[in-house]
Amino acid sequence: MRIDRVDLIEIRMPKADPEWRFALGGKPENHGFVVRIVADDGTAGLGYCADAFHYGVSFGGLRGALEAFIPRLEGRDPFDLEAIMSDLDAALYGNLQAKGAIDVALHDLAARSLGVPVHALLGGLVRETIPVIRIVALKEPAQMADAAQLLVDDGYRHLKIKVGGDLRKDVARVRAIRERVGEEIHFTIDANQSYSPKEAIRAIRGLEELGIDLVEQPVRADDFDGLAQVSRAVETAVEADESAKSLPDVFRLVQMRAVDSISIKLMKLGGIHPAKAAAAMCKAANVRCRVGAAVGSRIVNAACMHFIASTPNIDYACEVGEFSRLLNDPATGLEVERGTLRVPSGPGLGVALRQPVLAEA
Questions:
Q1: Residue 245 annotated in active site
Q2: I need a surface site. Which of 65, 214, 283, 311 has the fewest CB within 10 A?
Q3: Per-residue pLDDT tens for 288-331?
Q4: Would you give the distance in Å from CA 1 to the centre of its chain?
């Protein structure tokens, strides 16, 4: 079997709430590509990537990278994942999101050709479901409490609350949500780099009385020493997200013991293969890890579920339900049920393109 062609399908996924934002800003839509790798026997694998301004990834940059990669894919054996991804690394440094879409599509293609789910290529099942944590966007306290209640009414028991670097208002936001949803709901706080280390310590200590499980990226992404300072000063577990944007970053964070947990994002790291390497580093260093926000199509969330299903040391709820707040998803076959997501059981990723998208390809 050889790769015959690679289709790039431009996708715009508007947010159901165009005012959705976090501490670093916001935009009204998710703009990216479905990557469809087609073998000479007609078998096709799907990947997906989208722009991400807070990681410096533009739509034009994705297009340029993917177009540069296509000639390096045509005629290759899709099972030669290591060689293919090494060639892409040699061709272009960075743009891990574009590489991640190709990595996922190759996994999907290989698994579909064998008639097995992707997790069968990754070590098999260690779990079939995972609790989903949903994000509460940054707004006024009462608005955030309303949004949180809607999610709880839908069956979610884990919420990630966005905060913005204003200590008093952030405490008011979390307090309003806690008073609305009660004591049984699990809270993660995500500051998206909006505090200095000392401010973060004050904020976390002020929030701990409200019952929080985890604080994500309280300080600037490049301030590894600041992360370590915060981690050592508070009782609550501290997690790196923007700081963990590559495998060398993950290695440095666990080597320093700068954080208690790593947010592993498949597209941020470059796909399933490097995500497995990141999880292995965390396991070796006895650092927690979980899957962070996979904002985009069901394609990438399905890939996350196969990774989660085959990775024993995933810890805590994962952010694999944010496709629910996006419109015009090109794929079907994945739905959250009462706050829980189940790994797809069909061949490959277990999701399919909607017919109009397939016709465009």
A1: no
A2: 283
A3: 999 999 999 999 999 999 999 999 999 999 999 999 999 999 99
A4: 31
Report how far residue 217's alpha carbon sits from residue 162's, in angstroms, rounded to the nearest whole number.
Answer: 11
User: Do residues 73 and 135 share a domain?
Assistant: no
Decide if 162 is catalytic. yes
Phi then psi for residue 319, to 5 deg, are: -95, 70
Q: Residue 56 — φ and ψ, nearest 5°? A: 75, 25
Same-domain check for residues 168 and 281: yes
| Sequence-separated (6 or more) residues with CB below 8 Å from residue 161 | 136, 144, 148, 173, 174, 177, 187, 188, 189, 190
Catalytic residue among 15, 160, 265, 268: 265
- Give 282: exposed, middle or buried? Use CB within 10 Å, 0-12, 13-18, 19+: buried
Residue pLDDT, tens place only, 275-299:
999 999 999 999 999 999 999 999 9
CATH number, position 49: 3.30.390.10
Coil/strand/helix, residue 160: strand
> Domain total for the chain?
2
Q: Within 10 Å of residue 38's Cβ, how many Cβ atoms?
A: 17
Name the token pair of 291: 């899957």
CA-angle at 202, arms to 198 and 205, nearest 5°: 135
Domain span at residue 287?
A: 121-348
Looking at residue 361, what is its pLDDT? 65
What CATH number is given to the structural domain containing 298? 3.20.20.120
Mean pLDDT of 217-237: 98
Element (H, E) at 63: helix 59-73
3-state secondary structure of 59: helix
- Contacts of residue 176, Cβ cutoff 8 Å, sequence gap at least 6: 141, 142, 144, 145
Token pair of 206 as six digits: 């002020």
Q: Is residue 73 exposed (0-12), middle (13-18) or buried (19+ Cβ within 10 Å)?
A: buried
Cα separation values, 38 from 46, 106, 135, 143, Å: 9, 10, 35, 46
User: Among the options 162, 169, 198, 268, which is catalytic?
Assistant: 162
